[in-house]
Each structure stands twice: as C-alpha cells, then as structure tokens.
Amino acid sequence: MADLSILVRDAGGASVVEPSGFINAHTVRQFEGALERLVQEGRYTILLNCRDLNYISSAGLGAIMGLIETVRENQGDILLCNLQDNVFAIFDTLGFTQLYRVFPCEEDALASLAEQA
Fold first, then answer.
1. Please, what is the end-to-end C-alpha distance for the chain in angstroms?
2. Low-confidence residues in the chain, pLDDT < 50
C-alpha cells in the first residue's frame, strides 16, 4: 500500500481533498500537486477532510501555506475537518488552528460555506 492516497471530489461548493495515510518528505509532492491542480483549475474553496490522515510533516503544512494567499486573493479559503488528535496537535502547535477554520466534521464545514454564500 502507498504511503499516501488522495481522493478529490466536489461537495457543497467546495473541492474536498481527502488525504489518506502520511504526508511526509516522500509524499508531499503528491499532496502539493493535488492542491496546485485545484488552484490552477480555478477551484479556490478547498476543504481538507483529514479523517484518514495519520500524519502531516512540516513539508505538508508548507504545501498548504504556499497556496493560502492565492486562494484567499481569489475569494476562496482552505478549511480543515475531521482532524485526528495527533494531526490536530501538529496543526495547533504550529498555530494553524489560528490561521484556518477547523471543523469537527465535513457537514459542519460545508454548512459554514453555505451560510457565507
């Protein structure tokens, strides 16, 4: 089995990215590529559903940070949901929970987008 698989689908006006496995130095290019393709396609509202994400390294966090300015300049956002405790701890320790909206589940995140529309 691969270290990382990524499913991308549309739901509720957002592009939902579901990484499964580990985002680390070996897999970050795959993750970064998936996010960059969305932005190149003009899809600026991105929901990272992390229910099956077991680990994210600083390189993975850098991939997210590298796109946030472009996304927000285009009236989009990157939202996070379903963070496992260990993944939440990484995001929280590095201040990402102050920069990004974090939701307990995908339904809550999509509902917040619908409220903004």
1. 40
2. 1
